[in-house]
Design a protein that fits this description.
Number of domains: 3
Oligomer: single chain
Mean pLDDT: 76
Number of strands: 14
Radius of gyration: 26 Å
CATH topology of the largest domain: Rossmann fold
CATH superfamily of the largest domain: NAD(P)-binding Rossmann-like Domain
Shape: globular
Structural class: alpha/beta
Largest sheet: 7 strands, mixed
Low-confidence stretches: 173-184, 191-203, 370-406, 442-454
Length: 454
């Protein structure tokens, strides 16, 4: 009797999955094959290994930063901390960032970075050291900087490490930034520190709002009647994206979020979970298990994707819906809030079942990137303004003549030269006048009496 041939294992390499999706879309475009190949390939990948002193020993970390496309500057992409990070994943996520920015008409190229570690294994101070060392490596190779490459928070990273990264960039000058000064380097990292929390809170909320905005439009195409009010939702992943999607759907749209899953389990309540209380519990306990507002607990967080609900939202990592569990999906809508959560074979199974898939490349693009663009432009505009004391000395007619900024720079240079002649400052680097740096002189070099200064 002929034996049944076993199916080949499913290809879960994210870079291969993204490449196949690109080739499927490129078949509808009349462009030269060589040009399409160039668009698909990743331009640069920087692989590094660096030591960090953890307690009384040195630990070697592997890290990557990929630059997929330089067709628009600066490049943009998050930095993730995960034990599953590898070069293929980073290259694929950089490619997705390029395509998402192009769909949203945001003038960024795609990039991505990652460090192979599990954040829960290290203290906040140790993670600061690791982030600073990684940032120093990127600066040394010119893989970070305003107008060059702008990193941002991603899976496993958050406000504290993002802020450390930004402050470290300011202390380690890059040659291409010096002409615009330290303030210009504020635009080197997307997402502000908690001290400048207004824009950061807006950015975090928009990361969830952008994912949610396309869901109401999809209701009509699935046969679900009415609005989102009363629809049941299951969310897998309770990080920045998953929390804000669940919160907005629960509080503003009236959805019943009946299940939320994380890496160490999931909680279910058919009557709906209180997202604010669940977030407070998870922040305090670092686990979903034991939450008093749940009626059922699941051991595996990915199991929430198989529950009988109207909408499932995978908002964690890639390859969460595969050939193994695609048949178990009972929802009418799959809203891909994560990057690449559905494999190619799982997508075919879902479409055959009549499930509507809101693709990640569409759902993730737009609002969050536009906000990063606006905040970056604000930083750059602030850096290009002349110093306040120089602006006060600009003649009233200078703006009408169009010479305001050159005059302000010249005034600043003259003031610095005058301070040097009086012994108040000294020049510490040579070069063109626009790039000279000055340091406040020590007391020993200052004249000691008013008569001497005269």
């Amino acid at each position: 009797m002929p034996t049944k041939s076993k199916k080949a294992p499913e290809d879960l390499n994210l870079n291969n999955i993204v490449s196949r999706q690109f080739e499927k879309a490129a078949a509808h475009v009349k462009l030269p094959a060589g040009l399409l190949t160039q668009i698909k390939l990743c331009n640069n990948v920087y692989y590094m290994q660096f030591p960090v002193k953890i307690d009384d020993k040195y630990v070697i970390f592997e890290a990557w930063r990929a630059e997929h496309s330089h067709h628009r500057k600066p490049l943009k992409g998050g930095i993730r901390y995960s034990r599953m990070v590898d070069q293929h994943e980073i290259m694929a996520l950089a490619a997705l960032m390029t395509y998402k920015c192009a769909i949203g008409n945001v003038p960024f190229g795609g990039s991505k970075g990652g460090i192979k570690l599990r954040p829960r294994d290290y203290t906040p101070d140790q993670l600061q050291k690791i982030t600073r060392r990684y940032t120093a490596e990127l600066i040394a190779k010119n893989f970070i900087g305003p107008g060059i490459n702008v990193p941002a928070p991603d899976y496993g990273t958050g406000r504290a490490r993002d802020g450390v990264d930004r402050r470290h960039v300011r202390r380690l000058p890059s040659g291409r930034d010096r002409q615009l000064g330290l303030r210009h380097r504020e635009a080197a990292v997307a997402g502000r520190h908690q001290r400048a929390a207004r824009s950061h809170r807006t950015r975090r909320r928009r990361s969830g709002c952008a994912r949610r905005s396309a869901i109401p439009v999809a209701l009509k195409k699935t046969g679900l009647t009415g609005t989102l009010d009363g629809k049941t939702v299951a969310v897998q992943g309770f990080g920045n994206v998953g929390y804000h999607v669940a919160k907005i759907l629960h509080e503003e749209d009236g959805c019943k979020v009946v299940a939320v899953g994380e890496y160490n389990g999931a909680v279910v309540n058919p009557k709906g979970l209180d997202i604010a209380k669940l977030a407070a519990w998870f922040q305090a306990k670092h686990t979903m298990k034991g939450f008093p507002g749940a009626t059922k607990t699941l051991e595996n967080g990915v199991d929430v994707l198989s529950l009988p609900v109207d909408i499932i939202i995978p908002a964690a990592l890639e390859n969460q819906i595969t050939r193994q569990n695609a048949d178990k999906v009972q929802a009418r809508i799959v809203a891909e809030a994560a990057n690449g959560p559905t494999t190619t074979e799982a997508e075919k199974i879902l479409l055959k079942k009549g499930v509507l898939i809101l693709a990640d490349i569409y759902l993730n693009s737009g609002r969050g990137d536009r906000l990063v663009l606006r905040v970056g432009e604000e930083h750059l505009a602030h850096a290009l303004r002349p110093a306040p004391e120089a602006r006060r000395r600009v003649p009233a007619h200078a703006d009408r003549l169009g010479h305001g900024r050159p005059h302000a720079r010249e005034v600043s240079i003259q003031r610095a030269r005058g301070s040097a002649r009086r012994g108040w400052t000294r020049r510490i680097s040579s070069g063109p006048a626009s790039k000279r740096r000055w340091r406040r002189a020590t007391r020993r070099s200052r004249p000691s009496s008013r008569s001497t200064r005269r």
